[in-house]
Amino acid sequence: MIGQLLSGRYKLIRPLGAGGMGQTYVAEDTQRPGNPVCVVKQLKPPTNDPSFLTIAKRLFNKEAETLEHLGHHNQIPQLLAYFEHGQEFFLVQDFVEGHPLSQELGQRWPEDQVIQLLDEALTILDFVHSQNVIHRDIKPDNIIRRQKDDRLVLIDFGAVKQVRSQNTVLASQVSQSVAVGTPGYMPSEQVSGHPRPSSDLYALGKIGIQALTGLLPTQLLEDADGEVIWREQAQVSEGLAAFLTKMVRHYFKMRYQTAGEALEALRQLRVAPTEVVAPVPPPIPPINAQPVVPTQPQPVATVQPDYTVPVAAPTPAPISQPESSRSLVPLFIGAGLLAAGLVGGAVALQSSFNNSSPTVEVTPKADAGAALLVQAQDEAETGDLGEAVAIATQISTDSDSYAGATESIEQWQTDWDEQNDLFERAETALSAGRWIEARNAARALPNNDYWEPKTTPIIAKAKRELDAIKAPKPTPTPTATPTPTPTPTPTATPTPTPGSPSGTFQDDTWQVTLRGENSNLTYEGRNLKTGDSLNLSGATVATSQDRKVYTWYNGDYQYRVSWRPSDASVLRLQVITPKGRELINSLLYERT
């Protein structure tokens, strides 16, 4: 394709990278003065099926619109155009002159430099997550050190990856979610196809550890619980070590849940008296002083108004968040600081009042409930009722919108529970080969942006299987009756290997049977009330010395089994709730 002119404008100059679903090129924009270079990303759908292309196009356009909003940030490449050409999809973005962060790693960084990296990257992620976007491939190659100002730029966003995931789903009609990411930087929930904002924080934490130790993530060991063993490989203060350890916790509920939360903790760490290496704080200018623009690129530059790195201030500056943010933590932080500002203003006003007679009227605090309710209603319209409920429950009881929110929450929660039950029934029926039940349950779900990508593969799979059943079978040609052969002597069922661990856990609802044999673990689980099978798909395995730890996710519940193949006395089942509480810790088998 080199030399080809796309959309009558973008001339491809050279390839920049390639993947299984497309390629990236450096191109010239022939309709801008000087023909500046840009980046063109090509996405090749795996099939030409018209119904598939229709859905892929809708998803692509939606994600491109998201990228357009992200490009408003100074440290994210701006989206210049997106278009379809010959049943292929193309994105055009600004070309960032610089080098990837991977070129700077491989040796141990000083602690203050690592903190600076984390602060700058978390600031970008705080903005990204506020746009309801999960990057899903945070790694050194996707962080560029921009040449003109030495700032970090985050590239390779999820528009192509989101569509790739849906492409794979719709083409294979098997899996709902596809793991997108890079081994070593990708946490277990992302491997199983359930990425969260904290998945990006896990990856960034791995980069921070890589900078401190000089080691690749794949060179670090994990303990029996899947936690990264790294502290002995670096000289690091207790504060930063604890911060990074929390970022890379194996179970996502144990990590920082938002970039804003992590950023606040990091900035408190920067001014803590116990840190090993602390940067020298610059003198604080008078409040009416004009900012001085440095002649050389500085780590803390005033290039971008929404990014500041306080070095000596005891209270970190808030990061502004758009109203559409899924995370309300930054909103509450900002509200708290605003309240502090109002208190300070009230003190100043009181002092002024003691010396002068004019009366000062203080504007009453605005009611944020109405905005939150509108945001929740927007989520409900997309079909994500769970998120709508989560937002609406943040409305305070003294808000004028509280009564309306309470009524909406009740209805949304009821609908959400019913819809999730329908979807679980559809998945269970599909796994069990009950095609009609699977199809009908999937069809009963709403046809909206949230449920349509989930139900389309189920309906298509059920239709194919039903069509195959209905297809006429060819009449077999009669053949001569073969001479009967002697009935073989039945072989006795082999006796399980002595010491092979096995056991059954059972409560009022679930029965789980596990067996370990030939260094492999198998399981069977069913709901005693409904007869449904327990879906523990996408197991990850962590190996440390002679112990294996198998981890599954069933919804937001984590199932963890610890097993030593060399010692059959250890086979333990743990079930951890979404809030991190250990629901079950049961020894299923013990050698007598």
Automatic annotation (TrEMBL):
Residues 469-504 are annotated as: Disordered. Residues 10-271 form the Protein kinase domain. ATP binds at K41. SUPFAM superfamilies: Protein kinase-like (PK-like) (SSF56112). It is an enzyme of class 2 (transferase). The keyword Transferase applies. It comes from the Bacteria. Keywords: ATP-binding, Kinase, Nucleotide-binding, Serine/threonine-protein kinase, Transferase. It catalyses: L-threonyl-[protein] + ATP = O-phospho-L-threonyl-[protein] + ADP + H(+); L-seryl-[protein] + ATP = O-phospho-L-seryl-[protein] + ADP + H(+). Its EC number is 2.7.11.1. GO terms for molecular function: ATP binding; protein serine kinase activity; protein serine/threonine kinase activity. This is non-specific serine/threonine protein kinase. It comes from Acaryochloris thomasi RCC1774. The lineage of its organism: Bacteria, Bacillati, Cyanobacteriota, Cyanophyceae, Acaryochloridales. The gene is spkB_2.
